Amino acid sequence: MADARSPGLPTDVVLVLEFINTLDVEKLVDAVPTPGALDAWCRARGLVSSSDAFTPDAFRAAIDAREALRAVLLSHTGEPLAASDLKTLERVASSSPLTVGFGQDGVSLRPAATGGWKALGALFAAIVSTQRDNHWLRMKVCAAGACQEAFYDTSKNRSGRWCSMAVCGNRTKLQRFRASPPRR
């Protein structure tokens, strides 16, 4: 399996995975704890211009979308998905309008809003791109409860459940082994 830092992954895949991974669930460290921090994160990735800024509403929507996306990608490993997570994404997407753009590279979706909503629109356009290019279902969240890192499943049969077999996979298997009744 590969994570968002793996070479060769499409830019849109990396963007979505990195956005979800702005919260390190295991260490409880949020890389974007404030509107200003999220604005800087988006600016570094070219999602907003210097004249754009995250309002408190757009910031809350971005954090809600991040956690709903985490739930959706966790469902790609077979975990149940709450309908409320999909409704959250639909609510945030409806405030992040997109337009169709035409260029020499073809047709694309582009954000049609300003400020933080522009960045969220770019994120949703990236999600549509990952679906179109058949990457969406390979984007997952580690099923190891304490980890929950977003990763790209490179397994041949798309059965990957952990961000790292060497760490989270082994940890999970060891926990199962220790919890099983002793053999006689």
CATH class category name: Mainly Alpha
Quaternary status: single chain
Order of helices and strands: HEEHHHEEHEEH
Side by side, the strands of the main sheet go 1-2
Mean pLDDT: 88
Q: Considering DSSP H and I runs of 4 or more, what fraction of the residues is helical?
A: 40-55%
Computed structural class: alpha+beta
Overall geometry comes to globular
Query: What is the level-2 CATH architecture name?
Result: Orthogonal Bundle
- Per the CATH scheme, the topology name is Jann2411-like fold
Number of strands: 6
Main β-sheet, in a few words? 2 strands, antiparallel
Tell me the fraction of residues in β-strands, as a range: 5-15%
- Residue ranges: pLDDT <50 for 5 or more in a row? none
**What is the count of DSSP helices, taking H or I runs of 4+ residues?**
6
Number of domains: 1
What does this structure look like?
This protein has a single domain, classed as Orthogonal Bundle (Jann2411-like fold). Helix 1 packs across helix 5 (about 115-130) and helix 3 packs across helix 4 (about 85-95). Strands 1-2 form a two-stranded antiparallel ribbon. A two-stranded antiparallel ribbon has the order 3-4. Strands 5-6 form a two-stranded antiparallel ribbon. The longest helix has 20 residues, at about 55-75. With about 180 residues, the chain is of the alpha+beta class. The radius of gyration is 18 Å and the shape is globular. The chain starts with 10 loop residues before the first helix and ends in a 5-residue tail after the last helix. Helices cover about 45% and strands about 10% of the residues. It has helices at about 10-20, 35-45, 55-75, 85-95, 115-130, 165-180; strands at about 25, 30, 100-105, 105-110, 140, 150.
